[in-house]
Amino acid sequence: MIELVKQSKSQKVNTAETLYNVFSEEVNSGLERNPKCLPSKYFYDQKGDALFVKIMNLPEYYLTRSELEIFQHKTNQLINALELHPERYFELVELGAGDGLKTKELLKVLEHQNYKFDYLPIDISSNALNLLEDNLKQELPKVSVKTKQGDYFKVLDALKESKHPKIILFLGSNIGNMSDSAATKFMTKLSANLNPEDKLLLGVDLIKSKSVVLPAYNDSQGVTAAFNLNLLARINAELGADFNLNQFKHKPEYDENEGIAKSFIESCVNQIVTIKALGKSFKFLKGEKIHTEISRKYNDTLITEIIANANFSLDTKILDSKAYFADYILTRNA
Ligand code: AVJ
């Protein structure tokens, strides 16, 4: 009996209970801090996923359209830069595939030109993977899809066994939610999980004027506001808190020199919020802000710094027509 308990602990399985404990622990430590903060990864429950789909279609949210344009109009440039050949089998692995909108443009051309490959979307959400798989069966029935549910690095570690050439897609400026030091660690870990000559296609939003960036995080329909405040709704629903969403507001900022869009939730009044699962209350002053997200924007210097200690070399950069967004192609060194 004792042996069994020990074993299950050392295996660290992600049971619903552990996930719940991690969530409540991270909410607690974020709200204990001064200034207060909450991790952006918790935006994405079912409601948050749906709001993010809406964000991607907003007129102000240029990121998705800019990268889609690259995938639609510069597909052959992408294929050349990735050094793909129709006869040489490869694995196309995507980290956090989402709805696959951009990737489908590439898959379409690869299928049409008879490239030999498997498409392996990795996601933590099995729901998202099932939807994507069904959609691809309809739209691109000839593409071989092998979904992989789980943690990126666990899946990549398992895939490292196969000595087939790999192309990793990490699109949508998803890396921008990481601090530069976290991104540096991520890239180092990623290159360690690849074989020499494997390639990474890294999609990032570029540093540009505030008049373009800020509206993307402060849209006129209030979808981004709802997305940000959904974090409080989630804490209410899952941790038994009593955040009054009418007494908090979405507050984004962007500093052109720094190149980081930041989202905050600001308290409109002095108030106290109780979180039952934590058995305690938190005080918020009028005007006090909870930092909920960073969306880093990049340039060549920043990308070079981030990969400096990772075993990658920077090969190519492909831009959309407005030069808002870049897809960088990196090769894992020998
Ligand atoms: C999914 C991380 C790329 O930072 O632009 C959109 C998330 N947050 N609007 C981004 C997001 C607010 C998005 N990423």
UniProtKB/TrEMBL annotation:
Tell me where the signal peptide lies.
none
A single Gene Ontology MF term assigned here is: methyltransferase activity
Keywords noted in UniProt: Methyltransferase, Transferase
- What are the Histidine-specific methyltransferase SAM-dependent domain coordinates in residue numbering? 24-331
Q: Does the keyword Transferase apply?
A: yes
Which Pfam families does this chain map to? Methyltransf_33
| Superkingdom of source | Bacteria
What are the GO BP annotations of this UniProt entry?
methylation
Task: Tell me the protein's name.
Answer: L-histidine N(Alpha)-methyltransferase
**Origin organism of this chain?**
Formosa sediminum
